[in-house]
Automatic annotation (TrEMBL):
Coiled coil: none annotated. InterPro entries: DUF6817 (IPR049202), TPR-like_helical_dom_sf (IPR011990). Residues 49-130 form the DUF6817 domain. It comes from the Bacteria. It comes from Comamonas odontotermitis. This is DUF6817 domain-containing protein.
Length: 370
């Protein structure tokens, strides 16, 4: 018999916050948006423009817009910011050629549905340079009062502090919802995107590619979140709960290494007969990047397989907390709600100490009423 593995002491796991989990639980039902009157009123208007038929990164444009809005709902943002999330590309922009409303003739039509404040946010988000905005924020080029000055049509354009805060938060949610390894390749080095030949790099262009989690963008999202600590931006909007309420960064090297370590286990590039190596690799991934749930969730299953129920419960709780903070998946091979569902299975079996010993019995596991 193999010697028991040591307990998972020292891992930066989070405790499951009941209130955060309850907010997330409400969003597992797709009908949640119907309970939010401003969003419910705007959704049919957007759907009438065939957003469900349009491709967008890891899904459809409808999937993307609703996913971004779900995260903003989870982050307890005000109505105008959530509406910005739902409509954030409908006038098109430099990165997405999906014009659903004509900014020259239909602004009043959209404002009649969502209100002038939200429509103005949408218009600016679509028409100002988002690449330049992200560059300025990441470089710390934020005015003392929280404003950001952009170049727009050859002239300086001041973006007011509230709008800056809204754009940062929506950009965080937008990036998390859509970014995976395919974009790491075709849109590498964002916001400074090099011009590369599609024909020469045909392999990188094949959609959706291997569906690895991004190895670079989570650190950028963390840096955007840290910008919300700027004195001119504090208190303008609720701070997202991710990265310890946007007080912690994530080094690019740690982001890249954690994603690679996680993916090496997913691709079974570790010994297949014993758990110790794969467990150690995932533990290192969690040490480097404790802010996403998928590595912790897979680690919980390895702990269960090794009979380490207490460690499995701690890892599953922490994974569920991370999923409850994001509202979107980091590993986009399956959707957010599926990751949450499997994590709850692991959590309950760890609590009850009854993980199946036979492989075929995994097909029978189901969540028991709580």
């Amino acid at each position: 018999m193999n010697a028991p593995l040591p307990p998972a002491h020292g891992l930066p796991l989070q405790r499951l916050d009941a209130a955060q989990w309850q907010r997330a639980k409400l969003l597992l039902d797709d009908s949640w948006i119907e309970q939010e009157p401003p969003l419910a009123a705007a959704l049919p208007v957007v759907l009438a423009r065939d957003v469900g038929l349009d491709w967008h990164k890891a899904g459809t444009f409808r999937h993307h817009l609703l996913g971004v809005t779900r995260t903003l709902q989870l982050w307890q943002q005000p109505e105008d910011v959530k509406l910005l999330g739902l409509l954030h590309s409908v006038y098109g922009n430099a990165f997405v050629d999906l014009v659903k409303f004509d900014a020259n003739s239909e602004r009043s039509k959209l404002a009649a549905v969502v209100g002038e404040k939200a429509e103005q946010l949408v218009f600016e988000f679509c028409t100002l340079s988002r690449a330049q905005f992200v560059q300025k924020v990441l470089a710390g080029q934020i005015e003392a009062d929280g404003a950001v000055v952009l170049e727009h049509k050859g002239s300086p354009r001041r973006v007011e502090p509230y709008t800056v805060a809204a754009f940062i938060i929506v950009s965080m949610a937008d990036t998390m919802e859509q970014w995976f390894s395919w974009q790491d390749d075709i849109f590498s080095s964002f916001p400074n995107v090099p011009q590369r030949s599609q024909k020469a790099h045909w392999m990188a262009s094949l959609w959706p590619g291997p569906m690895r989690p991004s190895g670079r963008m989570l650190s950028q999202i963390a840096s955007l979140g840290l910008a919300l600590q700027h004195p001119g931006l504090q208190g303008l909007l609720p701070v997202p709960p991710v990265f310890a309420h946007c007080t912690q960064g994530l080094a690019p090297a740690a982001d890249a290494a954690a994603a690679s370590l996680y993916w090496s286990v997913i691709q079974q590039d570790q010994p297949l007969t014993d758990l110790d190596v794969a467990t150690g690799v995932l533990e290192q991934a969690v040490q480097l990047n404790p802010w996403v749930g998928e590595p912790q969730m897979v680690l919980a299953q390895l702990y269960l397989s090794a009979g380490r129920d207490a460690d499995a419960k701690a890892a599953a709780d922490s994974a569920l907390q991370a999923f409850s903070q994001w509202g979107n998946a980091w590993d986009k091979r399956v959707q957010w709600d599926a990751w949450v569902a499997w994590t709850r299975i692991l959590q309950q079996h760890a609590q009850n100490g009854n993980w199946p010993e036979r492989l075929d019995k995994l097909n029978n596991v189901a969540l028991k009423p709580e």
